[in-house]
Amino acid sequence: MVIESSLSPSTAIVITDASIKNNIAISILYMHIANSSLIKTLHHMVFVTSTEAKFFVIRCGISQASNKKYISKIIIITDSIYAAKKIFDSSSYSFQASVVAILSNLC
Fold first, then answer.
1. Alpha helices, DSSP H only, in the chain?
2. Average pLDDT, rounded, for the chain
3. Which residues, including other chains, have CB under 8 Å from residue 90's CB and lie 6 or more apart?
4. pTM higher than 0.85 for the full model?
5. How big is the CA angle at 87 (ends 80 and 102), to the nearest 5 degrees?
6. Phi, psi of 100 (to 5 degrees)
């Protein structure tokens, strides 16, 4: 699916990861769009939870991909299933501001 989608100029493939060491979170994302060079973004944060860091990098990936012209499909590849589920969990009030930002980007 990823190889086939990587050829489409309307599909963005975003690969995310985040980790925390010594109270410093490092979030990294790679984005690929057909006929474009690979985009790498690195963020450093302090005093955040692992879920917040992973949620942040997913949000950044969606935001960056939705700002590109002609993108109609975004594929997120992540090992952060717990954080990804929180995006669509309406009972998770602590992340609602981020969810609203993601959904407004997607609209």
1. 2-5, 50-66, 81-87, 96-106
2. 80
3. none
4. no
5. 110
6. -60, -40
